[in-house]
Write a structure and sequence with these properties.
289 residues, alpha+beta, five-stranded mixed sheet, three-stranded mixed sheet, 11 helices, 10 strands, elongated
C-alpha cells in the first residue's frame, strides 16, 4: 500500500520562529509555497501559511503568527489515512514526520491526484487496491464484513464478437446496475478487474447472499444493447473479527476472504448456480490485509 513518504515533497523549506513575517512572505512568494513548517533546531514547533501572514504586520515575528498545533502524519502512513486527516481538520497540507522531526510535506492537491489513480477510469468505481483498505477500516470500527465477488459469464465472447467498445459500454452499464442496488453506508462497490466486481458489505452473510442474488438477477433482467444476453455468477464469504490466542489457529486475512468469495463465484459458474456461499472465517482485528 502506497505511503505518504513515497509522494511527499522531500526538499523541505522551513523557517524559524524568530523570522519576521515580511521575510517569510517574500520566501513564500519566491518559492510559490503557501505553507511552511516552523522549526527550532530540527524540532517542529509550528506551521505558517499565507493566510496567517496576511493577517499580521510585516514586522511581527513568525512565533506570534504561526499555528502551534500542527497536524502531522508519520511517513509510513497510507494515502487514505492522510486523506482522512486533511478532511477531518479541513487543511491544505500535512507535515510528514519521522519520529519528532519533519521530513516532508504532502499537500491536499497532490494527495487527491495520487488517490485518483485508484479510481477506475471506465466505471468511476474504486479499483481493487482500495478493497482491503475499506475492509480493514470497517473491521477496525468493530464491524463484521462479507464480500461478494461477482463475475460476468462468458464475457470474453462479447469482446471477441462485438468488439471492446461494446464490451466497455456493457461494463459501464453493469457498474450502474450494481451501483443502484448498493446501500450507502453499508455496501461498498469496486471494480476488481476486467469483468469482475466486488462488494464489501457490513451486512450479515445471509443479507449479503440476498444482495448478491438481487445483483445477479438485475444483470440478467437488464435490457442490453444489440439484444445481448448478459449474466453473472457470484460468490459470498463472511468475515468475523477474531483475536488470536495461544494455541488457537492463525486468523485469516482479508485477502483470504476475497479469495474464498472468488472461488465460490467460479464454483457458481461451473455448477450453473447464481450464488454460492463460501462460508465464514475469523479475521485478524488489525493488520489483516
Amino acid at each position: 500500500m502506497q505511503t505518504v513518504g513515497e509522494i511527499m515533497t522531500k526538499e523541505l523549506v522551513t523557517v524559524k520562529p524568530e523570522d519576521s513575517v515580511a521575510r517569510v512572505a517574500n520566501l513564500m512568494e519566491r518559492t510559490k509555497i503557501g505553507g511552511l513548517p516552523v522549526v527550532e533546531g530540527r524540532r517542529l514547533v509550528g506551521i505558517i501559511t499565507s493566510r496567517d501572514i496576511r493577517r499580521c504586520h510585516p514586522n511581527r515575528l513568525i512565533a506570534d503568527a504561526m499555528t502551534k498545533e500542527v497536524v502531522t502524519i508519520p511517513h509510513t502512513c497510507s494515502l487514505w489515512e492522510a486523506k482522512e486527516l486533511v478532511e477531518r481538520h479541513c487543511i491544505e497540507r500535512l507535515v510528514v514526520v519521522d519520529g519528532d522531526y519533519p521530513v516532508g510535506v504532502v499537500t491536499k492537491s497532490l494527495l487527491y491526484a495520487e488517490l485518483g489513480k485508484y479510481i477506475d477510469a471506465l466505471t468511476g468505481l474504486h479499483k481493487a487496491e482500495f478493497i482491503q483498505r475499506k475492509a480493514l477500516e470497517l473491521l477496525q470500527d468493530g464491524k463484521e464484513i462479507a464480500i461478494i465477488f461477482l463475475d460476468l459469464d462468458n464475457f470474453g465472447a462479447v469482446d471477441k464478437e462485438l468488439g471492446h467498445v461494446v464490451g466497455d459500454e456493457i461494463l459501464c452499464r453493469v457498474a450502474k446496475v450494481l451501483g443502484s442496488l448498493v446501500e450507502e453506508g453499508f455496501d461498498y462497490l469496486f471494480r476488481y478487474a476486467g469483468d469482475e466486481f466486488v462488494v464489501v458489505t457490513v451486512k450479515s452473510l445471509e443479507e449479503a447472499r440476498k444482495l448478491a442474488l438481487r445483483m445477479v438477477n438485475a444483470i440478467s433482467e437488464e435490457k442490453w444493447p444489440l439484444g445481448i444476453k448478459v449474466a453473472a455468477s457470484a460468490g459470498v464469504a463472511g468475515g468475523r473479527r477474531a483475536s488470536p490466542r495461544q494455541g488457537d489457529f492463525e486468523p485469516y486475512t482479508v485477502s483470504d476472504l476475497i479469495n474464498m468469495s472468488s472461488l465460490a463465484s467460479t464454483r457458481a459458474k461451473k455448477e450453473g448456480r447464481q450464488v454460492v456461499i463460501a462460508g465464514e472465517i475469523g479475521l485478524r482485528e488489525a493488520g489483516c490485509i
